[in-house]
Amino acid sequence: MAVELTLVVVLAAVLDRLVRELPARVHPVVVFGRLVDRADREWSRPRLAGVAVALALPVLPTAVAFGVVSVAVAVHPLLGVLAAGAALFTTTSLQMLLEEAAGVIEASSTDPAAARERLPALAGRDPADLSPDLLRSAAVESASENLADGLVAPLLAFALLAPVSLPLGAAAAAWLKAVNTLDSMLGYPSKPHGWASARLDDLVMWVPARVSALLLSAAALSPDPVLTARRWRGETASPNSGWPMATAAGALQVRLEKPDAYVLNELASLPTTEQAHRGVALVGRAGVLAYAIAALSGVIAWLP
Fold this sequence. Notes:
This protein has one domain. The protein is 72% helix and 2% strand.
């Protein structure tokens, strides 16, 4: 099983590099999002409905991933590896994140209006009044935060359970991605039916956020960023997102700011175009490191 784990992680990483993302019409996460849309409405008992939504909806993608990979493994072990690799690929994302962030950063200097149009696909904030500096800050913040949400969390879930069985690993990654999707769509104060989804996401992201901060610090080749991040990580409303973002701010020695929400490393200046691009490159190296560690965990387990 250890060798299969390594092959699955390598396959997912290669697909991420070459394919980026599946078309929206067939992407499992997008399909799940349409299901979440049906739950995003007024409820007579919103908090109770929120608990039901948070517990019930992630079961569907989890069951599908487990079932598909189980059938594939039963047919042939290699087919099981391919199915698990495809499942892990659909629940993780790195290359598209890097490209979107780099696109916003590049446009922030040459065409701020275009950068504002692109930003909503990357960060959940109103870009209308954001200056080029704040657009670049948003891109770096989103890249570092989504390293945890979009890659490290599902990858870690898979690596923990795949040694038991590939179907369990794929199911764990699918469940965690579903929980994160629920939070991103429903977990706002304005949506009382999303409170349980937000709290569940806070719980499951506790470890991945801190692992992501360590990976960013390792990618910067210094322990200082993650140590410095301890001073600023509490500025964000989320108990988790502050860790990777504050680590990125420390590594780049820049100020990262979401107006009327938080400021990280307030004594520094907002990122220049060059610094922001270095931030995206830092996230890219941390992502590759995450893939490598997950793949090596299978190799190490295989050794006598």
